[in-house]
Amino acid sequence: MERKTVFSGLQPTGNVHVGNYLGALRNWVALQEEYDCIYCVVDLHAITVPLDPASFNQDRIDAAKVLIAAGVDPERSLFYYQSQVPQHTELAWILGSITGTGQLNRMTQFKDKADRAGSNLGLYSYPVLMAADILLYRADAVPVGDDQKQHLELTRDLAERFNHRYGEEFPIPEPIIPETGARIMSLQDPTSKMSKSDENEESRILVLDDADVIRKRIKRAVTDSGSGIRLDWETKPGVSNLMEMLSLFSGMSMAEIEAEYGDSGYGTFKEVVAEAVIEDLAPIRRAYGELEDGEVARLMQRGALDARTRAEGFQQRVRRRVGLTG
Ligand code: TYM
User: Fold this and answer.
1) pLDDT given for residue 115 in this prediction
2) Which residue owns the Cα nearest ligand 1 atom 34?
3) Does the active-site annotation cover 113?
4) Mean per-residue pLDDT, 132-140
5) Are 161 and 96 in contact, with CB atoms under 8 Å apart?
6) CA-based nearest residue to 238, from 209, 256, 218, 260
7) Measured in Å, how far apart are the chain's first and last C-alpha atoms?
8) Rounded to the nearest whole angstrom, what is the distance from the C-alpha of residue 104 to the centroid of ligand 1?
9) Residue 219 among the catalytic residues
């Protein structure tokens, strides 16, 4: 039986944090066992906010390295930089031509980012490029965190609209969103999600942070003025977030955590969480240290060549459907 196709992407801005890791990356790695996986460092999405070109290239390499160190295997999966495969942007234009602006106006991430960084056309049409990333390879499934749900809905709508207008071409992709870990919260404000763009670096833990930084971040994590380790997102969002992290990093269930640490003080509990995070992330940090930039650049170039070959065939079919042949 032919394997189903998985596609996902990550922006190379800032560095990969435990939200990215628990919400998406761990699934990317696991899915390689069963699916035909395509993973992309989406550099064109990243430039929709102002960036320093001098450091951006290094950011791209660093992001690729973290993903490989965490287990994305370029021998098994197609892995490359989005900007090196021009079919993404061509398909985005075609899909943009069937996207209503009313629908784009409703995208909550656009509204948030535009409020912070100012609006531009790239930011506005960002979800259309994301739809093109996914549909270009006829992906069946897309592993993402909770914050990408709305973008996935748009992708599914566009696939249906295209199929209706031009003939059956795209499968309707399913999101793969983990039951726990889909929305890891900020350590400083546990009512908003952990984010690369948060100005306060104490709000997140990076996959590459060393043990001391991880201990410090968790020690300073905002909790509440009560006591008791209990899962309660309403009144104890900070503690609940730490419990979720402990569960995912240690494999313990929530019931086991409550039974074992229910009566512990926050200080002691935080130490337990920190050690579980440190232990799980240590091998990634080690693997990262062993990868060389030049080697990764070569892998990414090879990935782009393979991706272009595959994308070209698919894109020919789209062109034919739309009447852009010859
Ligand atoms: P990005 O780079 O912001 O994030 C990468 C992945 O991490 C997930 N994520 C989180 N999960 C749990 N808790 C959090 N606090 C958290 N923060 C981020 C995101 O949901 C994402 O899965 N638009 C995408 C990139 C993209 C893409 C695509 C994804 C472009 N094209 C095609 C899938 C398919 C983004 O900005 O991800």
Assistant:
1) 85
2) 8
3) yes
4) 98
5) no
6) 218
7) 34
8) 18
9) no
* 261: its two tokens: 């640490």
183 lines ligand 1 (CB under 6 A): yes
Other residues' Cβ atoms within 10 Å of the Cβ of residue 101 = 10
Give the pLDDT confidence score for residue 199 in this predicted structure: 92
List the catalytic residue out of 196, 216, 219, 270.
Answer: 196
Q: How confident is the model at residue 2 (pLDDT cuts 50, 70, 90)?
A: confident
Give the CA count within 13 Å in the CB-facing half-sphere of 42: 20
Nearest residue to 58 via CA among 306, 294, 303: 294
Structure tokens at 138: 């006829």
65 is catalytic: no
List, in order of start, the domains of the chain with CATH numbers.
Answer: 5-181+292-322 (3.40.50.620), 201-288 (1.10.240.10)
**DSSP state at residue 86:** T
Q: Residue 111's pLDDT band (boundaries 50, 70, 90)? A: confident
Confidence of residue 112 (pLDDT cuts 50, 70, 90): confident
What pLDDT, in 10s, does the model give residues 260-316? 999 999 999 999 999 999 999 999 999 999 999 999 999 999 999 999 999 999 999
List 193, 219, 236, 270, catalytic entry: 193
- Mention every residue, 6+ apart, whose C-beta is less than 8 A from residue 245: 18, 22, 184, 273, 276, 277
Task: Note whether 186 and 192 are within 8 A (CB).
Answer: yes
* Polymer length of the chain: 326
Ligand 1 pocket member 23 (CB < 6 A) = yes
- pLDDT at residue 272, as a whole number: 98
pTM for the whole structure: 0.97
Pocket test for ligand 1, best of 125, 147, 174, 240 (most atoms within 8 A of CB): 147
Sheet with 78-81, strands from edge to edge, namely 78-81, 36-41, 5-10, 141-143, 174-176
